[in-house]
């Protein structure tokens, strides 16, 4: 992993945590995710005339990814509804990198070397520390934890599916555009089926915030897809989930959730892990 790729993934981590915070801030989770998903659809439609069509072998991956992303949105909505942002987000994101490592080894034949493996493990220890700190002093809410872990499983699956798909597509920009188009209409359609004539009334108060979240979401994932064409999937997944640290900071600043010394120590572990992965590159 080159410094340029690492910088792109770290920037994607910041934008990803930001759009998740926006989704959490919107009280009606279905409204928030419908806006973000629908905004992604509009962005995808705007991009498609200016980019190459993904190659034929990429389309099964695109269709599979769209289905997994819809499940991811549904589970993430449930996680945010049941748990605090500082708890749900770290567990969902932190549980994914090790699963990605296993899936990438099986399906992409990417077995990380010693330095990359050490970096992944150290980063995951840091991410786990942030996740566990989100549970401090509370009785575990197993429904919220279960939803967050299930969200993490979908993250791992679509990470590997899209890593293989974007490499087969020949165009990372075309891939993200068509992924947004394929998945973007489902949640807005579901909201309309529930609200009917009241849909516009529900969307109007959050429209600007939701469309900002959509732009951040597309930008974050476009950077990750580009990086997946230039480096192995597992280190990118681990590095991307440094968004957990950003998410914890956002939780502390905007949702009045305590950050604390243990999270600082966990963040330091993530930084060490990033350094080891760069050493591997």
Can you give me a brief rundown of this structure?
This protein is 80% helix and 0% strand. The chain has helices spanning 3-25, 29-47, 59-82, 85-94, 96-107, 114-133, 142-169, 172-183, 186-195, 199-203, 207-228, 233-240, 243-254, 260-280.
Through-space gap between termini: 4 Å
Main β-sheet, in a few words? none
Q: Estimate the strand proportion.
A: under 5%
Catalogue the unreliable spans: none
Report on the architecture of this protein.
With 281 residues, this protein is an all-alpha fold. It is 80% helix and 0% strand. The chain is built from 14 helices and no strands. The model has no long low-confidence stretch (mean pLDDT 85).
Describe the protein's topology:
Layout (H helix, E strand, L loop, with lengths): L2 H23 L3 H19 L11 H24 L2 H10 L1 H12 L6 H20 L8 H28 L2 H12 L2 H10 L3 H5 L3 H22 L4 H8 L2 H12 L5 H21 L1
Helix pairs in contact: 1-2, 1-11, 1-13, 2-8, 2-9, 2-11, 3-4, 3-7, 3-8, 4-6, 4-7, 4-13, 5-7, 5-12, 6-12, 6-14, 7-8, 8-11
State the main characteristics:
281 residues, mainly alpha, 80% helix, 0% strand
């Amino acid at each position: 992993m080159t410094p340029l790729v690492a910088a792109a993934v770290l920037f994607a981590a910041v934008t990803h945590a930001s759009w998740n915070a926006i989704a959490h801030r919107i009280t009606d989770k279905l409204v928030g995710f419908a806006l973000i998903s629908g905004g992604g659809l509009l962005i995808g439609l705007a991009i498609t005339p200016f980019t190459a069509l993904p190659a034929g072998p990429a389309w099964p991956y695109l269709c599979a990814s769209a289905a997994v992303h819809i499940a991811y949105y549904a589970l993430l909505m449930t996680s945010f509804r049941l748990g605090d942002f500082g708890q749900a987000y770290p567990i969902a994101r932190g549980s994914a990198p090790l699963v990605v490592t296993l899936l990438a080894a099986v399906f992409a034949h990417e077995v990380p070397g010693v330095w990359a493996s050490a970096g992944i493990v150290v980063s995951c220890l840091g991410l786990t520390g942030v996740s566990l700190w989100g549970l401090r002093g509370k009785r575990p809410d197993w429904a919220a934890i279960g939803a967050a872990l299930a969200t993490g499983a979908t993250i791992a699956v679509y990470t590997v599916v899209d890593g293989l798909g974007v490499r087969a597509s020949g165009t990372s920009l075309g891939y993200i555009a068509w992924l947004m188009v394929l998945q973007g209409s489902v949640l807005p359609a579901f909201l309309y089926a529930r609200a009917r004539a009241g849909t516009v009334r529900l969307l109007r108060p959050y429209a600007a915030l939701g469309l900002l979240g959509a732009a951040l979401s597309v930008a974050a994932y476009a950077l990750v897809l580009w990086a997946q064409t230039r480096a192995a999937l597992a280190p990118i997944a681990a590095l991307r989930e440094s968004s957990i640290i950003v998410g914890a900071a956002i939780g502390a600043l905007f949702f009045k959730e305590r950050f604390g010394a243990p999270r600082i120590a966990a963040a330091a572990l993530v930084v060490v892990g990033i350094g080891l992965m760069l050493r591997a590159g």
